[in-house]
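Posting this for the archive.
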Amino acid sequence: MGIKRIGKHLLEHRWRVRREFPPRVLDAIEKAIKAGEATHSGQIRFVVEGALDGVPLFRDQPARERALDVFAHLRIWDTHHNNGVLIYLLLADRDVEIVADRGIDAKVGHAGWEAICRAMETDFRAGRFEQGVIKGIEAVSRELARHFPHVAGGSNELSDKPVVI
């Protein structure tokens, strides 16, 4: 566990999320998820966590492991077609992780998700958080639309509202 990472997480806690993701940006993200889900039968959740604290921080939990915990906690795996996708941003580390349920993950694979994450991180490094998230949602939606097209009368199984931790 590096002291630099601990310091960053302790200092950049939740204030950074409020600055980069004000209500206007969270509303735009929710609208992008709704628009994307109109093109496919998958489910997308976006979660931004300002920084780790407590046990996850002092265990030096990597962003990927934390994303898996959030995926399980929000029950994103609990969709009819096993096609739920989590886009998780750990803001203090500027690390994006995509966790996908087995139905869609088997079709897109690790390399496909990594390409989307890296594109988002490029926008984040340039300070374009809203643009990066929306482009990521659009890219995930394209993958879902290709493998799980929209079904008339389908239901929205998971909330489209972004989660701020």
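The radius of gyration is 15 Å. The helical segments are 3-11, 14-20, 23-37, 54-58, 63-73, 102-125, 129-147.
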